[in-house]
Amino acid sequence: QLRLVESGGGLVQPGESLRLSCAAAGFSLEVYAIGWFRQAPGKEREGILCISSRNDAMYVEDSVKGRFTVSRGNAKNTVYLQMNNLKPEDTAVYYCAADSLTPKSRIQAMCGGGYRPLEVWGQGTLVTVSS
User: What would the pLDDT profile of 14-29 be if each residue is shown by its tens digit?
Assistant: First the structure.
């Protein structure tokens, strides 16, 4: 069974940073496109950052551009979301998802949720930004 496990969420003050981890259990993320999504209270889930399996295509949602970045761990089974200069409006449950059949040409669609059902989802981790 393929699983993703997110960690690293918590309570931070505006302007601070957090790094979320997304670890694959039982498989390697090397051939998977990765997406980071979030769902704020009372809002629909949105895709904020998606990257192709070979890291040669990326989509970054405007509200996080310049503040959030994604990277893959050396072990090929962990992906990180580095979040800097956090704002109260970043408060949400953050999810990672992986899909082996999303090509780099459809990375934006992956984040938009309109390409195909993604194969694996994590359980989410809560990020709260508040003073």
Answer: 999 999 999 999 888 9
